[in-house]
Design goal:
Layout lengths: L40 H19 L10 H17 L2 E4 L3 E7 L2 E6 L2 E4 L6 E7 L4 E5 L1 E2 L2 E2 L1 H4 E3 L5 E12 L2 H6 L4 H17 L4 H5 L3 H19 L3 E12 L5 H70 L1 H17 L37 H4 L10
Antiparallel strand pairs: 1-4, 2-3, 2-5, 6-10, 7-8, 9-10, 10-11
Helix pairs in contact: 5-7, 8-9
Length: about 400
């Protein structure tokens, strides 16, 4: 029974109709048991429900049991189909590209703009950002190092703690969606694998000093070749090494090794400096000796040529006057010989007794250098003559 049905008094009897209060209803005090006017909320709410029920019964056949009206069903179905058809419109942003699949299989790719696909579940559209740059860090970040990723073995069997980043973007949305289950994890795993392969072929010193650029380029090329073989639809933009240091446990020993290497380089440089100085001095002495020998050779050749020319001239004069030339040569020869020796002139005419010479007559004496412009023979001092008997 309805809660506001006053016809049925219920177990407590009928409600009071005014009681002993003979005052008009407007002047009676309000109260639940004083017969005052009821609040309109209950009746108005019930009336609204009844009006809605009558309208629905009117649309779907009324109270006579005539069934659902076909026009009403068609209107509802048409409205639902329209909403379902309109759900296929979608917007592709300028930095995106949409991949449309038909029953889960690749159908086509759509460029930016307002696009349409058959409603779900016939077709679906998935948008992929193709111009945005993505970044993945390998080895951890600042203050959160991951030794399992950062520790690598170099080509000279040393261990290096290396952190790097890979920047990449999507080039083929269909390959990116269908060939990679977890794109970011796949790129990270490939980056770590490629970096370990390149580091395994590179000495530690090159990685720490001048070989970083080559390592980055080789890693990016190796990653791109592998991802292309997977048809992943990913382009590697850049590989950047953030930090490259020896492990913390061997930093002190590594610094000692570097110091020893620097001392070795300094010693080698000093030795090279000394070698270069000695070699240059030896080369200078050799060049000086060679020049002296060449000068002596030139002098000897010219003197020989001069002597030969003089001999030829004497020969010509000899052929013209043999006696005169012979006497002149004899006199010149004796002049040269006697100018440098002690001489004793002995006049033996009319002598009958032996001539005794003092022992110091033939003693060698230092010759006085001849004066300028004088004949060497005239500069020799006159020797004392032997006493006459």
């Amino acid at each position: 029974m309805p809660w506001n049905d006053n016809a049925n008094p219920g177990p407590w009897g009928s409600p009071p109709q005014g009681g002993d209060d003979d005052r008009p209803p407007a002047k009676r005090p309000a109260g639940p048991n004083r017969g005052g006017p009821r609040r309109p909320e209950g009746p108005e709410l019930n009336a609204a429900f009844e009006r809605l029920a009558r309208r629905l019964r009117g649309i779907f056949g009324g109270d006579g049991g005539r069934g659902v009206r076909p026009g009403a069903v068609a209107a509802v179905v048409g409205a639902g189909f329209g909403l379902w058809a309109l759900s296929g419109f979608y917007v592709v942003q300028p930095n995106e590209e949409a991949v449309v699949t038909t029953f889960g299989a690749y159908s086509r790719s759509e460029a930016p703009g307002l696009r349409y696909h058959l409603p779900v579940p016939l077709e679906r559209a998935e948008k992929v950002a193709v111009t945005s740059l993505n970044r993945v860090d390998v080895g951890g970040s600042a203050g959160a190092d991951i030794p399992e990723e950062s520790l690598m073995l170099t080509g000279d069997e040393n261990i290096i703690d290396l952190d790097f980043s890979v920047t990449w973007r999507v080039s083929d949305p269909s390959g990116y969606l269908f060939n990679l289950r977890d794109p970011e994890a796949s790129v990270k795993a490939m980056a770590e694998s490629a970096m370990r392969e390149v580091i395994g072929k590179t000495p530690l010193q090159a990685i720490l000093t001048t070989g970083r650029g080559r390592v980055q380029i080789e890693t990016a090329e190796l990653m791109q070749r592998t991802l292309d073989s997977w048809h992943a639809g990913v382009v590697i933009v850049e590989v950047q090494i953030r930090t490259a240091n020896p492990p913390q446990e061997v930093v002190a020993a590594f610094r000692d090794v570097q110091s020893a290497q620097q001392d070795a380089v300094s010693a080698v440089n000093e030795a090279n400096t000394y070698r270069n100085r000695v070699i240059n001095e030896a080369k200078g002495d050799a060049a000086r000796t060679t020049q002296s020998a060449l000068a002596y050779r030139e002098q000897s050749v010219r003197e020989a040529l001069g002597g030969a020319s003089r001999f030829n001239q004497i020969l010509t004069e000899y052929q013209r006057a043999p006696g005169v030339t012979r006497d002149r040569l004899y006199i010149e020869t004796m002049q040269r010989v006697l100018a440098r020796s002690n001489k004793v002139v002995v006049d033996s005419k009319g002598a009958s007794a032996p001539i005794i010479l003092p022992p110091d007559v033939f003693r060698p004496r230092t010759a006085t250098p001849p004066a300028a412009g004088l004949n060497p023979a005239a500069a020799v001092p006159e020797q004392p003559q032997a006493p006459q008997p």
